[in-house]
Amino acid sequence: MSPAQYERLSRVDQRLVHLLDEADKLFSAEERRTVHEALRQWEEGDGPYGTWFRDLGWGRCRLPELPATVMKELLLAWLSPEVDGGIVCRHCGLEYPQHRQPPPSEWKRLPGKTPRQGPPPWYDLPEFFRACPGCEASTYEIDWPATIEGRRPWMDMDGCVTER
Q: From the DSSP assignment, how many helices (H) and strands (E) are in the chain?
């Protein structure tokens, strides 16, 4: 890791700690216990936040400045047993959890929609967020962290450790 990349990682870590502290003020006692347990698991090597935090460190996503309410929602969503990996917004680079989908045979078409005709959504599927929690972009304008190759505009923004 280059000195510049290490410096960016340090700034991302500082931002993460700040956002965690701000969100902590909004948790109920039970939410706080659950989040703190998940953070302890991360410190030991994994846990529910493992994928997200590792992807931050590897530059597969970024951590924009977020309101405390949004950070709270993100932290709680990552704890759901219905999480099926993360997705990265193509606009702001935030990684947020993807909801596990039922088998396609159980998908219910939205009224008046025909699959692959017109803009999505075409089906009524569960999701944690109706839009990117970082910038409100469509949840259909995403990448999967492991498939990100090349440059993305968000890689040049603060909150990302990727080499510029």
A: 4, 3
